[in-house]
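Worked Example 4.2. Read the sequence first, then its structure tokens.
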Amino acid sequence: MDSREVCVWLDKRWYGALSSQLKKEGATVEEKLDEYLNAMIGQLPEQVREKISREIGRRNSGSGRRLRPPASWRCSMCGRMAGMGIFRSTTLWTA
């Protein structure tokens, strides 16, 4: 899989404050990051998006796997220990 992991380190107080605020809106930090990344991908020139989508489609064709749209991202949360305490890590990777 040709993918890159993007890890966002955020102090637990920032994460907690963002989570609380977004929860009132019915959203999560991960969902907002997903939306932001998709918006950035949407700003790429159309020919670039189409080329990458075709390349991903060719790479995955015949694999028997059900795939998400190429522009979508999956997010997962994991707690990390650091010298100053527990931090939240949001890992984003392409499908």
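Now turn to a second chain, presented in exactly the same format:
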Amino acid sequence: MTSEEILFQKFENSSQEAVRLNLAISGYFQENTHDVIREKYEAYLRRRIRPTLEALIAADDLTNLQKLENSGWLSAALIETGLETAIRLKKTELFVWFLNLKAEKYGFSGRNFSL
């Protein structure tokens, strides 16, 4: 058995959601993950996108957050969740990244702060 298969077997057999989430995140973002296994991880993570987002923020994992964004996973509501989570966890770099992402994709509306 390869390490990829062992990781996937642990993912499939675990009954603890926190363990399954961490295994799915690490398996999904590995470069050498087989496409069929990656699709199963993706299906799991898409159903748990908020916990996935929070886990990546807690781990200060900007690289994988950028991969999620490039894959089109981050909606306006998830970007807001990311901002709130980054503030709560005191992750300044990620807060700034989410703020810039929000500005790029959606802008800010409702108030005019010009002098």
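Notes for the reader: The radius of gyration is 16 Å. Residues 86 and 92 are 7 Å apart (CA to CA).
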